[in-house]
Each structure stands twice: as structure tokens, then as C-alpha cells.
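quick one, 474 residues, struct below
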Amino acid sequence: QIRQRVMQRHNIRKMWQGVGCIVLAGILSATALDNGVALTPPRGFSTWNAWPDRMKPASGNSINHTTASRYLKGMVDAGLHKLGYTYFIVDEPCFTGRNADGSLIENKTTWPNGLKAFSTELAQYGMKLGIYTCVGPTTCGGCMASEGHEEQDMQTFVDWGAQYVKVDSCSRNCTASAGVSNKTECGQILWSRYTKALNATGVPVVYSIVCNCDPGRGDQPWKWAVPFANSWRTNIDIQVGFQAISYIVDAQRRMAGNGSWCPTSPSNPSGPGVPCFGHGGPQQYSGVGHWNDMDMLIIGTKSVLFPRPLNESQSRAQLSLWAALKSPLLISADLTNVSQDLIAVLQNSEVLDISDDKLGREAVRLEDQLHSTSVGEIYAGPTTKGFVAVMFNRETTPQSMALHLTDIIPQSNDENTPTWAVRDLWAHASRGTLAADGVFSATVPGNDVVMITLVPSAEQPITARSLHPFGSYP
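---
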């Protein structure tokens, strides 16, 4: 597995260089992040969308210890801390200034005992502190950020017990950076400072970046962030309601080249292949230790800013898609005031196992592949044991869908080719077995998903060569 990770990182870097990113060799060697964490997409909690006054922290309404402890209680009471929801990100704590030595001043009104004490509180439940800051001088909420104090602040965060740092783009992003016009170079310069600073602490810390990534603008961090960070946002902040789920999934697809497909054999243009690297989509850069971040889960999130919370079926859809597409899974809701039905969605260990799969391969949308014969909006990808598929119905009425296994499973004339066991991850039930050229059909309810795994009935090593059509997909 270690060799696999090393080779994967090597291949990613080769590809990353091949798409024309501009990095000085000295900078790359000095700032490359190889911290051994986030080998699967990080999972946990963020206070950002749960906190109703999140848009004005500098006016005294920042998240406070009392509320954060209530959010923690909701996580613990639901047993989620035992299901891999490990990180608790305080977003944002709103530091009020700096001391004469440059160290951050905590707000003693909102955090009377400080974040270090809260880190100790989290550790009682096996959870780890995460802290938010910005790449510029002030945060999105107008509070003190870390520009010019990168090494000092990262060491401070680690001293407080932080094992996750989120660095946002407000007040100094790649559309308004001092003296840097090339967006790729800008991203490398600004966010690599934190890579260097975190490396200097000697403590493995998950490093998450957010950098102005609306599909119509921005600097496409997946093209340059692999050596620097454990995750990067691929989109704008998640917005209100179910339509946000569809928007982000669509944006992820558009950024992948809008379905462009490069066949393995030029003589068979509709045959097996991979997404075209030249289009620079984010899927090809995702992998063990470095993930495309589609933003927080909004399961259970409700406030003035989220007046149309997700229902149970819509919640299943978000968790399924985020797990299959290998996004970090960060809850951002007050679970002390959420129905048990929605908490049960977050507790689905079979879906969480897909997020945790060690292969770390992001699913792709099958209808974008020129050879696909499947019917419906279906996302599929390989796992260490076989394959996973998500049938997604964004419409309000039931839709019939059909997954043709020939779209994802290597075909062979060998009479010993195994059949494939099908399991429904939301029904927690077997759906029988299929031949390698079989079809799995389902009627998917409105705004819902059917999520299945396919596992060979006989031992079949899952190798790069056998992962049709994913063989060359990093």
C-alpha cells in the first residue's frame, strides 16, 4: 500500500507538470507537503454553516465555546465520533489582534478558556481541533488573519492542539494578489507559504485550502495544489437547498472538460479510455492524501441562510455523491436539533466505507463516456474490492435507470470470469448477482439515490489493468 501511494503521488506529479503548471524546482522541493495524513477524505464537523451569525463575526457574533460545545455534544450523542468523524473545525474563531511579539490574541469573551482548552475537550472523545484562517491580512468575516505571520500562526495552532488548518482566500486571493498576475503562480506562492509553515512545525496537520474557485473564474487549484495541500475547494461555497447539490455535482463535471473522453486506442474512438488530461478537470488530480473538496455537508443544516433544509432522501443523495466523488465529509449542523432520520443518514457505515476505501479513486459520470450504454445519471468508480455506483435522480418524480456492467467491468472470454454480487448500501440488502455483461436496473425515487457495490463472487485482484474504464485514471 505504501508503494502504491508513492507511485500514485509520483504519477500525479508527472501529470501535474505535464499540464503546464509553473513551479520553480527550488520552491517545490522546499514546500512539498508529504505529511502522511488524509489518506482518505477527512471527515468531521465544521461550525461554519451551523452558526447562524457566521457572516458577521467581527461584529462580536463569532462562534463561541458554549455553542461549539453544544455542537460537539450533538456529534457525541449521535455516536458520530466513533464513525470516523474526527475533525472539529472552528470556522471562524475571530482573533481580535496581535500582541507585541506578533502572536494572535484570542477573543476571551467568546473563548474564555481559549482554543487549547477546547482541543483538550475534543480529545476526550477522540476528536481533533481544526482552525480557520485566511491567506490575506483579514478573514472573510473581517477578523485577524495570517498574512506575514504564517510560520508563527501555524506553530501557535499546533501548540493549541490543532491537527487541521483551513486557509481561505479572502482579502488576498488570486484575482487581487500583490504583484502576481498569473493565477497559477499566484496560488503556488500564496498557499505554499502555509505548506512550508506547517512542515516546520514537525506535526502532521491536514491542510485544506479555499481559493475563489467558481467554475467561471478563479484559478483551478487542482492544477497546482497537489504538492501543497491535502484538499482544495473545487467550487463556490455551498448554498441553500437541494439545488446546490446538483449545481456542485454539475460544476465538478463541467470542470472535467464537459464529458470529453480520450480513448485508449485511436482505432476505437468509442471504446475504453480516460477523461482527457488536457482539459484539466479536478477528477484526475484527486487521490490518496489530496482530495477535491466539494464543500460541507448540509444534512440537517437549517437557519436564516438555509431556509430550505434537505429532507431525508436529499440527504441520502448528498452523502452518497460526496462519498463516491471522494470529497471530505464535514457536517455543519446543530445535531441537537436534527431528526433521528437525518442522523441515521450520517451514520450509514456502508456509505462511509466507500469514502474510506483505500484505493481513493473518484467516481466518474458514466453518460459522459462515449462508450457508455447505461441509462440515467450514474456515477461509478473502482474500489479495493470491486466497484461502486450511485444512481442519482435530481428530478422530483421517480426515474428508471439501468447500469450496464460492461461500462465499468473488464470483459473477458475466460469461462471462469466471476459473477458480481450486488449490494444496496441504503437498503442494507443483497440485490443478487450479475454476470459481467449484466444489467442492474432500479427505479430511483425523486431527489434520491440508489447506491450499490459490485464485488466479484470469486477472487479477482483489482489491478490498474482490470479497472475498465478507469485503468489510466490516477
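The first strand starts at residue 43 and ends at 46.
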